[in-house]
Amino acid sequence: MDTIKSQEGWKEIEPGIFSVLDNFSGSAYDQKAAMYEKLVSSKLYNKIIWGTSPDDYKEFGKKGIFSENGSLLDVGCGGLIQTAAIYSQTKRPCTLVDSSIEMLKIAKGRLIEQTGKLRDSIQLLQADAFNLPFAENCFDTVCSFGMIHLFDNKQEYVQELLRVLKVGGTFYFSTMITHRWISKLYMQQLRKLNEFGELCSEKEILALFKEEKSRIKSYRKGSMLFIEGEKIR
Ligand SMILES: C[S@@+](CC[C@H](N)C(=O)[O-])C[C@H]1O[C@@H](n2cnc3c(N)ncnc32)[C@H](O)[C@@H]1O
User: Fold this and answer.
1) Angle formed by the axes of helices 28-40 and 101-115, to 10°?
2) How far is the CA of 172 from the centre of ligand 1 (A)?
3) Distance, CA of 34 to CA of 41 (rounded, Å)
4) Strands across the sheet containing 224-231
5) Do the Cβ atoms of 68 and 94 come closer than 8 Å?
6) 149-164 tens-digit pLDDT
7) Dihedral, CA atoms, 135, 139, 144, 147, nearest 10 degrees?
8) pTM (2 decimals)?
C-alpha cells in the first residue's frame, strides 16, 4: 500500500495538520465554517434547496472512500461533516486537503471524536486545489465532494485533480448543477455574493471530463451531480 508521507517544505501547523501555503490564515471558509456546516447537515435545507438528503452525500462518500485500499486524496475536504465516520473506518492512506485551516481543525476534531486519536495513515494538509504539492500520477483515488461549482475555471480544477491521479486510478466528484428552478435561483444569488462559480448544467459539467483522459459514469439526485470515473491514460 502506498503512503503519501509529509514532504519537505510542509510546515506542521499543529500535530497532524500541515501547510504548504505562505499565509496560512485568512481563507474565506475560516469565517463561514460554522454556518456552512449547519446548512449542509440540515435535512430540510438540502431537501428544499437541492432536492437531496445528507444521506446521499454519505452514500457517495462511502463509494469513493471504500473503493479500494491504495492512497486517497480528498480535495476541499472541509470539516468532514459527511465523511468523518467513513474515514474512521478505512485503513487506506488518506491525504485530506483544504485551503482553510479552520476547516482542517474541525476535520481533525471529528476524526479524533470517532476513534480517540488521529490515525497515522491520515494527514491533513492546507494547500490550494489549483496548485497541489504532489507529483503527477501518485494517488490511487481522488475525491472532491461539493467543489466544482465553486469555481469559474472548472476545467483547470478537474485537470489539476486528474494530474495527480494514477493512470487506472479512480475519481469521485460531486457538484451542484442548475437542474431545479429553486436551486438555480439560489445559485444565482450565491453567485452574486461570489460564493459560486459560473453556473453549469449537467451537460456542461460532464463535458469537462470529455477534455480529460478519463472514462466516467454519473447519476443525478435533485440538483446534485455525482460523477465517478477512471483515468485511462
Ligand atoms: C463547499 S465546501 C465542501 C466541503 C466538503 N467537501 C463537503 O462536502 O462538505 C468547500 C471547501 O473547499 C475549500 N476550498 C475552497 N477553495 C479551495 C481551494 N482553492 N483549494 C482548496 N480548498 C478550497 C473550502 O475551504 C471549503 O472547506
Assistant:
1) 50
2) 15
3) 11
4) 11-14, 17-19, 122-126, 94-98, 72-75, 139-145, 165-176, 224-231, 214-221
5) no
6) 999 999 999 999 999 9
7) 10
8) 0.96
181 Cβ contact list (under 8 Å, min separation 6)? none
Q: How far apart are CA 206 and CA 75, in angstroms?
A: 19
Q: Determine contact, residues 175/201, Cβ cutoff 8 Å.
A: no
* Mutational test site, ligand 1, from 98, 187, 224, max ligand atoms within 8 Å of CB: 98
- Ligand 1: does its nearest atom lie under 6 Å from the Cβ of 100? yes
Residue with cell 485551503: 99
Cβ–ligand 1 distance for 79 under 6 Å, the answer: no
pLDDT digits (tens, 9 = 90+) for 196-217: 999 999 999 999 999 778 999 9
CA of 82 to the centre of ligand 1 (A): 13
Q: Using the mean position of ligand 1's atoms as its centre, give its distance from the Cα of residue 76 in Å.
A: 4
Q: What residue's CA is closest to ligand 1, atom 4? A: 78
All domains of the chain in start order, with CATH: 30-231 (3.40.50.150)
Say how far apart CA 12 and CA 25 lie, in whole Å.
Answer: 14
Q: What type of residue is 117?
A: K
Instruction: For the chain, give the number of residues.
Output: 233
Strands (DSSP E) contained in the chain are 11-14, 17-19, 72-75, 94-98, 122-126, 139-145, 165-176, 214-221, 224-231
Ligand 1 neighbour 165 (Cβ under 6 A): no
